[in-house]
Amino acid sequence: MNVFPNVRFLSLVFLSVLYFHCCDAMMESADGGELMAGVAKVDITDREAGPVNDPLYVKALVLQSGQTKFAIVTVDAVAIGEIGHISNEYLPAVRAAVKGQVGIPPANVMINASHCHGVVCADVADRTVQAIEQAASHLVPVKIGTGSGHEDRVMENRRLFLNDGTEVDVRHAYSLPPDEAVAKVGPVDTQIGVLRLDRMDGSILSVVYNFACHPIQGVPSGANTADMIGFASKVIEENTGDETLALFLQGCGGDINPVMYKDVEHPRDAEPLGNLLGLSTLRAVREIECKEDSRLVVRNQQLTLPRRDPTARIFEMEKEQKRLLNSLNGTSLDLKAFLALTVKYNLSEQFPSYASHRYLHDEQLGRDDFRKLDALNRKNLQAYIRNIHAMEELTRVNTNLRLLRKHQRGLIDSGKRTVDVELTTVRIGDLVLTTFPGELTVQIGLNIKKASPHPQTLVAGYTNGYIYYAPTAKQLENFGGAQEDSDCILAPEWQALYEAKAAEMLQGI
Length: 509
Ligand SMILES: [Zn+2]
Prior knowledge:
This protein is of the alpha+beta class. It contains 13 helices and 20 strands. The chain has two domains: 5-309 and 417-507, no CATH class; 313-395, no CATH class.
């Protein structure tokens, strides 16, 4: 049954207005003179929301060169609007207040969410403005430098390529596919992009570091936490001097999980992962030599991207849901009997049902009663396992189908087949940073870095808004099979448009 008849109608209406454009919203640059910087952080933990393991922060780094001012703001939250505890009014409200009170134009206030799943306080917007104001009122001359760290122990790609050509992702929301169905795994980005800012006396004012990984490991108590980012920043700050502020920029972590994400043998603990990330960042920080460099160039553009209509895929998945449900076949076993038999039949291949002498007596007497029983039990075990796998697949189909339906409703509500995104590209000395307001998957970050003419290019997703996951066109062929391709509003054409625009902005800065 088509429960969303309007979508097809809307598709036709809005197909005719599908277009892509972009326009320069802001470009500011400065050369010569000196680069000034100030930092501040404000606690944004919601202390009413339950136990707190470690505080969540909004952190601000305000840069000024000549007339150009730019604020890098990081928030220990899941996203800038749309989902989680930060509303869609947050970004415009913060920018308007900062324009009025600090004189930084809205397009020059960049806010990145670490994507940790902590609970922030209700007045997070006021506290963000407070952090930016404080940072802007403590500007000092700085020397800057950039470098890269390496980390490959804390994360893993969560996309699994299956033998049948489909892809599944590793989530707590559903079961993994059987081991033998998995052919290979996706890539990771081991680079930690680092910007170091020193005061003129050589002490470190701030470290900005960029890495791609979902900070969703949690802590053993289950309490509110900034996750691995909170721990990594603490390690950096505690080992660089009392007055250093470490700001984390989430990269293209859309399909990157904490390592061993589905481990059930150990309490989930982000602290050791954060410690490793922090130490690897520190190693890079120590290698960086800072120099006077006042280049601060900011470009901010809007890009219009095509939205996807998930209606046809929803029908297919509803069919698949029914097929899986009908594939559940009767078997004599129940869970209790299945578990007991599984132990026995894995313990003794030859004599699973009783001690060997009973089988030997049967053999001597010309009977094969136990052999027949074993054959029947083995058949029932296989049937039960097939049912379990069908049930596990259903958990994936049901979860991803819910995501497609959510975005189908969003498409109807939006009334248009496109979505506008804000892209910021900024040069700070030798370092170039480019942003996107969604969960870019790691391959896109690797592509942008490779195509960039600048040796030190950072890519930050989760910045200046949130439009859900932004996977590759190839990953979108798997549409409905994994979170990244299901929790997504974009049509596959988006990737080429975005990568071309990012390359153009990087060329021009
Ligand atoms: Zn995510």
